[in-house]
Amino acid sequence: MEKEEYYYKCVQGEIEGKQAHDTLLMSKSKRRCVWVPGPVIVGAGPSGLAVAACLKQRGIPSLLLERSNCIASLWQLKTYDRLRLHLPKQFCELPLMPFPAHFPTYPTKHQFIHYLETYAQRFDIRPRFNETVQEAQFDSTLGFWRVMTHTTEYVCRWLIVATGENAEAVVPEIEGAAEFGGPIKHTSLYKSGEELRGKRVLVVGCGNSGMEVCLDLCNHNATPSLVIRDTVHVLPREMLGKSTFGVSMWLLKWLPLRIVDGLLLLLSWLLLGDTARFGLVRPRLGPLQLKNLSGKTPVLDVGTLAKIKTGHIKVCPAIKRLKRHTVEFVDGKTENFDAIILATGYKSNVPSWLKEGEMFSKEDGYPRREFPNGWKGESGVYAVGFTKRGLLGASMDAKRIAEDIERCWKAEAKHSTTAFAPSLFSLSIS
Ligand SMILES: Cc1cc2nc3c(=O)[nH]c(=O)nc-3n(C[C@H](O)[C@H](O)[C@H](O)COP(=O)(O)OP(=O)(O)OC[C@H]3O[C@@H](n4cnc5c(N)ncnc54)[C@H](O)[C@@H]3O)c2cc1C
Fold first, then answer.
1. Neighbouring C-beta atoms of residue 204, cutoff 10 Å
2. Which cofactors, by name (predicted)?
3. Judging by beta carbons within 10 Å of its beta carbon (0-12, 13-18, 19+), is residue 197 exposed, middle or buried?
4. Is the pTM of this model over 0.85?
5. pLDDT in tens, 236-262
6. 393 lines ligand 1 (CB under 6 A)
């Protein structure tokens, strides 16, 4: 099929669909075919919302596809009750809309979700929910991206990947897991220590989530132990009355990274003591250097370390195998537990659906190019929220992407009928 004919049929399909209550032209794969005049954004988390808002502000409509039934599904469906933003609010706001002044420095997850819902309303962002993108591929003959969901093929000029660094839970295989007999669940399913009151719980993984889940369990009179297999930097969340993150950003304006790392470690030692004494051995590289090189985030302590020091949380080595309600550790010791929580992190799902070999690594699903250059690929594909720099990184990406697409949008509107004509049918997108 010729490019123009295919494009025409897609547009025609959309018009006919509107007139005939969704009895649309079907593409070859029996999916209905819909032309999208602006970018298609995959994922309605904070990153997807941020880029949709920045585009909207520049007069560019976009279509947001979300596999779940709500915006920010990670925050709404997969986080524990006591979660607050780890970083102060000024480092977590999305472009064009600050947090309300009355919000605390570290907003609760409910406040953050409320902020995101208000954000979506303010920019009239209306994602299409329950639309999992199963495949997206650039059709070099047509010069368009073809984005497939279960029912629909969307055809567009620009594709923005916003499925996040936390799209799928990482669940390690543990020998004997089937024998254990008690619940073994990932933190994405953990809500509160209430459900484990009085129980002996082993938490695997000592990132921010693992440390905080241990604290939550203590506060609900459970008895947590924490598996620490690797070295880890634990820093106080605040230093000298300021957030550690803010202090680091400020120091980095004046001093080289290695000196800032040295100062952070000195202050942490003064405030927290020698963490290695309690089983939390620090990596050889400083916290900021390690973050830059590997993306590994330091733990910002919110009270867990004090519980480790007092023995309310026991530190354990890696698991060797499980038996019935028993864990055997690599040092040969065994201990009984009622439940296991896996704070073993998340991974990107991009390689499972994006058929593209250049921009994203097939191994880890992140852009191959290092920050700050990973946001743009070839043929109109973009990535938002893959910087390993949280919401601040996502906001930077979103602004750059909107600026870049605006340039092409304006240029194409001048020179091409295809960029201009579909705007007649932009009713379907926000
Ligand atoms: C417990 C926890 C606490 C955190 N705290 C902070 C913090 O304080 N500050 C900070 O800056 N960062 C924090 N982060 C990092 C976090 O990744 C970001 O805050 C933020 O959620 C990233 O937004 P995102 O939109 O890139 O990804 P997500 O929030 O993961 O959103 C991606 C969306 O894409 C959807 N999706 C995935 N695959 C598909 C598909 N194939 N088709 C359609 N839709 C799809 C998902 O359902 C999801 O809604 C935290 C992360 C976690 C897990």
1. 24
2. FAD
3. exposed
4. yes
5. 999 989 999 999 999 999 999 999 999
6. no
Tallying the residues shown for the chain, one arrives at: 430
Q: Give 103-157 pLDDT, tens digit per residue.
A: 999 999 999 999 999 999 999 999 999 999 999 999 999 999 999 999 999 999 9
Quick one: DSSP state of residue 96? T
Cβ 193 vs Cβ 222: under 8 Å: yes
Residue 51 CB coordination number (10 Å): 32
| Ligand 1 pocket residue status of 280, Cβ below 6 Å | no
Q: 35 and 155 in contact (C-beta within 8 Å)?
A: yes
Q: In what order do the strands lie in the sheet with 339-342?
A: 184-186, 339-342, 200-204, 223-227, 314-316
Measured in Å, residue 78 CA sits from the centre of ligand 1 at 10
Calpha distance 178→189 (Å, rounded): 19
Structural domains in the chain?
Answer: 2-167+348-429 (3.50.50.60), 170-345 (3.50.50.60)
What pLDDT, on the 0 to 100 scale, is given for residue 240? Answer: 84
Residue 26 has pLDDT above 90, yes or no: no
Is the sign of the CA dihedral 252, 249, 258, 365 positive or negative? negative
- pLDDT number for residue 316: 97
Angle in degrees, CA 419, 424, 426, rounded to 5: 85
Q: What residues form DSSP beta bridges with 80?
A: none
Q: How far apart are CA 36 and CA 426, in angstroms?
A: 7
For residue 18, what pLDDT band results from cuts at 50, 70 and 90?
A: very low
Whether ligand 1 lies within 6 angstroms of the CB of 83 is answered as: yes
